[in-house]
Design a protein that fits this description.
This protein has 148 residues and is α+β, with helices and mostly antiparallel strands. It is 47% helix and 24% strand. It contains 4 helices and 6 strands, in the order αββαββββαα. The strands form 2 sheets. Strands 1-6-5-3 form a 4-stranded mixed beta sheet, sandwiched between helices.
């Protein structure tokens, strides 16, 4: 590409965010990694002409989240794109809004713990009511024997 073509493309490409869907563990570690080929492919799918040789990933991308990647369109023209690596489009949207997968997992766990605590409170309240009813029956002297 000529320098002028590269500069024209850089105006559109610089700062763009691309979503890369990958399978990963609950801890956010990818099963594999995101490569220069993947970065070039998602940019090309969005209508930009990018070759994998133009992409520079300084450290292997092995975790979910937002990652900056350099694209060298010409020896004198370089732009930075963002790869949003997620397990699903919904997760990518949440990450784009600024939340990390670890924060989301912690929130979900806290909600689950709260629901479990509420459930035990309800069970405890029901047990207290049964006990109060049994005491009331004992005090009135009208107890019924129940077969076991």
């Amino acid at each position: 590409e000529t320098k002028k073509e590269a500069e024209a493309l850089s105006q559109k490409l610089d700062g763009q965010q691309f979503v890369v869907i990958r399978s990963a563990s609950d801890g956010g570690n990818l099963y594999g990694s995101v490569t220069t080929r993947d970065a070039a492919m998602v940019a090309t799918e969005e209508g930009f002409t990018v070759d994998k040789k133009q992409v520079l990933i300084r450290q292997p991308i092995k975790t979910l989240g937002l990652h900056e990647v350099e694209v060298h369109l010409h020896p004198e023209v370089m732009v930075v794109i963002n790869l949003n690596v997620a397990r699903s489009p919904e997760e990518a949207e949440l990450q784009a809004s600024g939340k990390t997968i670890q924060e989301l997992a912690a929130e979900e766990e806290a909600e689950a713990d709260f629901e479990i605590a509420e459930l035990f409170d309800d069970i405890g309240a029901a047990t207290d009511e049964d006990h109060d009813l049994a005491v009331a029956v004992d005090e009135s002297g009208e107890t019924e024997e129940q077969p076991e």
